[in-house]
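Onboarding guide, step 5: your first structure request.
Type a short instruction followed by the sequence, for example:

Predict the 3D structure of this protein.
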Amino acid sequence: MSILEMKVPSPGESITEVEIASWLVKDGDYVEKDQPIAEVDSDKATLELPAEQSGIITLKAEEGDVVEVGQVVCLIDTSASKPEGTSEAKTENAEAPKAEEKVVEKAAIVKEDIKKEEKPAPTSYATGTPSPAAKKILDEKGIEASQVSGSGVSGRITKDDANKAAVPAMGANVSGGSRASSTTKLSVLRRKIAARLVTVKNETAMLTTFNEVDMSEIFRIRKQYKDEFAQKHGVGLGFMSFFTKAVTRALQMYPDVNASIDGDYKINYDFCDISVAVSGPKGLMVPVLRNAETMSFSGVEKNIKSLAEKVRDGKITVDEMTGGTFTVTNGGVFGSMLSTPIINPPQSAILGMHNIIQRPVAVDGQVVIRPMMYVAMSYDHRIIDGKESVGFLVAVKEGIDNPVEFLLDGDERKGLEL
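The system replies with structure tokens like these:
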């Protein structure tokens, strides 16, 4: 017998422990080399753990366990042979419908007899004994275990039994609707995000300033060039490239917005690494566009598409989400009209985009209907003053209201590389 010990690999620098989010295989399963066997949560990302060799697996950690990097979490018996196919089982299953029909007929005949002569379930030490989770619920609600009927193995009282028994104790006016609840442990990533956001609220002088932008010109440009742009560059022309270019221009005009604070020191960056908030299966991630100030419109779109696909497929790496200098988040895709985005530390500012609404606005003394968007910029007032924050947002507005002049150098086709 040859046993391979699988240890937790390091998911990134400074990470010393991870949490087993879920096992993708069962104890005793045969696994193939490189097959994903578990999902592990670190404080920065959720990663898949692949099998290092083929063989029979023995799990050494439970879901929810916090394990150190380098700790053994499972064993793989590499000398075990792969189980034979299930062709015989498939043949037997093919006959199952006919056999099942007979079973159903037989069950219908004896159903009434079973009801008439129902025997009590055998009792054991577990009968009427609540599980630890169920006991906690019963104790909190002041309900005796003897008053609850257990539906678990050998009559054990489960958490679900306790929740159902607790419903009447929560109030006399109980309707026929469900009042069940469930408790789920937050992932390491979500707990880390929560801690960081609370830190931001407590340790920064966060303030938000607002403005609105007219999306008419961007709508016109996208409509006029979207097909040619997609054919030339192999990617769609979206809103994010316009906002990214507007942001990098504004950051170069107001360098204090593109800075962070470290104790008594301010750190200014000559580059614009733009973090773009992307919603994925594991929550909101912020992959980074490195040196976005040097990217063309097609370069921005291609990089955002690539990073967004990695987030949604769970393949984004820690390095790809680390080191941004400014963040752009778009709550408009979910229908948000206005919000105060929270700073992504150690950055000092974040721009929030919102939904686009056709609204009446005054233009040259006339009321016209235009596609308008509210934008919000939250910033750390410790290093960014009102003048810089308002000036920055006005510069972003200039770029969006008049993209041909400020973002495309006066030539639409040349600016879009068409």
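Each response can be followed by summary notes, for example: The chain has three domains: 3-77, 132-168, 207-415.
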